[in-house]
Amino acid sequence: MTQPRIAVFARLANGNAAPTRVITGQNTLLGRTVHGLAYDSARDEIVVPNALADAILVFRADAAGAEHPVRMIQGPRTHLVTPHAVSLDQQNREILVASLTGKRINVFRDDANGDATPVRVIEGPQTELGHVVGLAVDPDRNLLAVANTHEILIFNRTDNGNVAPRARIVGPKTGITDEPWQMEFYNGRIYLAASNHFHDNLYEGVTLKPDAKEVPDDPWLNPILGFMGVWNITDTGDVAPLALLRGPFSGLIHPVGLALNPKDGEIYVSDSVRNGVLSFLVPQFFAQQDLTKLSDRQAKIR
Amino acid sequence: MSKTLFASLAVGFLLFTLPSVPAQARPQESQSGKPASEDIPPVRMIADPYPAFNGIAVDPAHGLVAMSDPNRKSLLLYDRLRGTSKGSLSVPIRQIIGPDTFLGMIAGIVLDPDHQEIYTANNDIEDTVVVMPYSASGDVKPARVFSVPHQAWGLALGEKADQIAVTVEVQNTIVFYNREVKGVEAPLRIMRGQQTGLADPHGIYWDEQHNEIGVANHGNFRGVVRNTGGGCSPSFIADDEPEAGESRPPSIRVFAADAKGDAKPLRVIEGSKTGLDWPMGIAYDRQHDTILVANNGDSSILVFSRNANGDVAPLRVLRGDKTGINHPMGVAVDPQKGEIWVSNWGDHSAFAFNSGAHGNVAPNRIIRSAPQGTPTPGFGNPMALAYDSKRDELLVPN
Description:
The complex is a heterodimer. Chain A is mainly β.
């Protein structure tokens, strides 16, 4: 709704800080609807989708201004359908792309360029993919976690085609009600920005749906607040998070973006209602033992 | 949502200097009344406590200039003849803000002087256009709200036609409604198709004198026939492939105002000579018979002849350090005063220039939503993040 761009901030930036540099302008080929973004530390690159041009853009990590992407995946062979989120599997050197319009996950080599054919595509009715956004790979267990509609689906990392998920984390104990968003993986755990905003789109394309009768409530006023939750990637069923960030002191209302910095014990969360980025100092969220204790405490609260 | 909950949610925020939000929801609380163990305050928060201007519109008859503000989710109305002095913050005549307003990630704005109504387009998942009376102030319900396809951005009012036109980014479409539309109604007509050349349309103007509509396009294109989906909703036709995506050049496309369907544009301004660089807001200046473009990418205002066609250079360019133009989002014309207004995304400001101004000239007046020099993160609903571990930096897209 505003200026398409990638703004770069010092980690310790606070308040109404200005970015240190901004990637923006027609030459960048950026667009709106960026629901996933990844930094590739091995290649020192930024990977970002352009949903409105069915494209994946790759920039130098220190790009600034109206800089052109160094690579762009776009074309009929890509089978990209409104790609709005990306994630990386750096160990296997792959880019994973989420498409909620296409209800699919496309996987490309991390050096793919131009009209590239995906190495795998997970799609079809057995996949149960719907509103898919966040993706996270566990390269050691060869698992792929997917933030989907109102749940987390677990696939085998190398699944291809119309395959059923091998497990799912879903149910009232999870706290996930609608549109789980960006997801990250670290040390056997998945970290999820569970937005819980509720989007009721009355149009299919530009055609009113037959059952559209009333203007829905403002989606950002959904009384069920969002949170940041942590699960083991091996969890299955109706499982409460191991750890949580939520509540009025947290400042989180409907969190969407998520990034991890285990080295400094920090988690970064963007919030749609706040229109801001919040930094949490939670080294305990990256430690096995402390997470178990937190889980016990939360069980008592419930 | 009960407003008593606003105070409840606000309690936690008193610990920080955080921008106020339309707190709408009941926070999860521990049974003891103490903060729950998971209710951990952030150590830092990057956010802008001030309004950030996106769209801009002028009503000389009522002496108003109005801006949409997607940061605080508000509409601001100012006296169009009063600028700020010495870099101080300008006080609006009225601000419309709060959970009852239905204002979210708003973009385009138009004023209807005849009916004294403000229209603004919710660009994000609100999927609505909100209509407020001029007299609205504070946390009030809109006069009307109507549903539109996802990613509505620009608005234009046809007073004689008694219609409102709405651009829709992801659908590469313009939809038209009766001016008095309310609730859920199908569009009167739709302009869409390969021949239109619409590609991620943004700003739009309605020139009733020449029966024309002009539209600014960013160039992102993903088809108009197959699997166009719902934007941010899963499609019913998931098995279908779309047309392949394209990154087309930016353009200004001018159509007959009563066109519909796959209409060919009457004229197209496109090419390297045009200097177009993410054209956002657009306006028609009747006095000079020119098209004004808020050229976001290179921080300029481009002025084209109304009849310009093809790869043509602008008649005039307003750009430079004296202008203060900083990634403009909107442009509007005040024919009574002989001025144009520009809203800046880059620094909490809106400027009035002489409508014939060109080059590197200072504005006549400035309206500021924050004291001069106040930095802005420039967020527009950042729905993703990444951490650059090599540079110790956060990457935040809009």
